[in-house]
């Protein structure tokens, strides 16, 4: 009989690429991961890994077993959901990942709704860039998370995960000057301006760069800042222009002009495949939908 815990290790190796990365993500030692995978090979009766020096790759049999592991893990999530549903009431920790603007604009109201409807649940919120959510969910560090994507940066399909739309918001070009509430503009108008972007490796940074490239230029980046309130303060100080989503405009300085862009950011609720029917996941999803601020569109 194949051990589910070892199947999870094999799945993580297929996604992360190295035994060291799997060990770090799941709080094991590399030697422990290697030993467990060796045991899984003996259980399977065929080679699952090819070792070349320090590198390890999956054999065709290993890749095929990973596909079955995905289905097994999803069914286990569904089984866990049904067991919880059979009990009376929801209780215990609920680990929620979110990004900063949603933490401020959506999550507090959602937690108020959740506490009223399910006082036994203990929500635990952690801020995390959407780019890191998939690994955290698969590793069991989070139960549910808010993620976002942009028109120019769609999220890739992630093995073992599922997501449902929450809301959609307008993107703006923030520039120094008196507010005008102008109509949509061509980004190329700002090709010679200094730009303020998020830090490299984030979806927000990739969105700005790709949107500018689609307009025919590469942005000349002066500052790299993740917090939108600080970004807007720098814009007001004449330090450059930036792209900011609607939820990032709470602390808008008076000396900033906003111009609508033909770009939207969409927020989704992500969880492990098969966990959508878990009562706790369904409860926070319902609370999040109830907490979406007025003026935001559907997340599709």
TrEMBL record:
PROSITE patterns: HTH_LYSR
CDD domains, per database record: PBP2_LTTR_like_6
GO annotations of cellular component type: protein-DNA complex
Top-rank lineage group of the source organism: Bacteria
Listed GO MF terms: DNA binding; DNA-binding transcription factor activity
Gene3D superfamilies assigned: Periplasmic binding protein-like II, Winged helix-like DNA-binding domain superfamily/Winged helix DNA-binding domain
Transcription regulation among keywords: yes
Keywords, alphabetical: DNA-binding, Transcription, Transcription regulation
Start and end residues of each HTH lysR-type domain: 2-59
N-terminal signal peptide: none
Keyword Lipoprotein: no
Pfam families cross-referenced by the UniProt entry: HTH_1, LysR_substrate
Membership in a protein family: Belongs to the LysR transcriptional regulatory family.
Protein name: LysR family transcriptional regulator
Source organism: Planotetraspora thailandica
């Amino acid at each position: 009989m194949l051990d589910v815990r070892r199947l999870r290790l094999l799945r993580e190796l297929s996604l992360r690429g190295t035994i060291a990365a799997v060990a770090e993500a799941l709080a094991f030692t590399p030697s422990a991961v290697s030993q467990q995978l060796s045991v899984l090979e003996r259980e399977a009766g065929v080679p699952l890994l090819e070792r070349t020096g320090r590198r390890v790759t999956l054999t065709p049999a290993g890749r095929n077993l990973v596909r079955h592991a995905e289905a097994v893990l999803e069914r286990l999530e569904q089984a866990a959901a049904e067991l919880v549903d059979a009990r009376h009431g929801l209780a215990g920790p609920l680990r929620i990942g979110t990004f900063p603007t949603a933490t401020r604009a959506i999550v507090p109201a959602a937690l108020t709704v959740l506490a009223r409807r399910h006082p036994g649940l203990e929500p635990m919120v952690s801020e995390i860039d959407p780019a890191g959510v998939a690994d955290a969910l698969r590793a069991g560090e989070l139960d549910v998370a808010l993620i976002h994507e942009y028109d120019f940066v769609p999220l890739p399909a992630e093995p073992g995960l599922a997501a449902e739309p929450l809301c959609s918001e307008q993107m703006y070009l923030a520039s120094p000057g008196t507010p005008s509430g102008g109509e949509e503009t061509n980004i190329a108008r700002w090709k010679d301006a200094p730009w303020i972007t998020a830090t490299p490796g984030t979806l927000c940074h990739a969105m700005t760069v790709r949107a500018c490239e689609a307009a025919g230029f590469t942005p000349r980046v002066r500052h790299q800042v993740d917090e939108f309130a600080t970004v807007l303060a720098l814009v007001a100080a004449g330090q450059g222009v930036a792209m900011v989503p609607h939820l990032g405009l709470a602390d808008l300085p008076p000396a900033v002009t906003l111009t609508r862009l033909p770009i939207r950011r969409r927020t989704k609720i992500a969880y492990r495949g098969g966990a959508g029917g878990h009562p706790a996941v369904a409860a926070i999803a319902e609370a999040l939908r109830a907490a979406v601020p007025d003026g935001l569109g559907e997340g599709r």
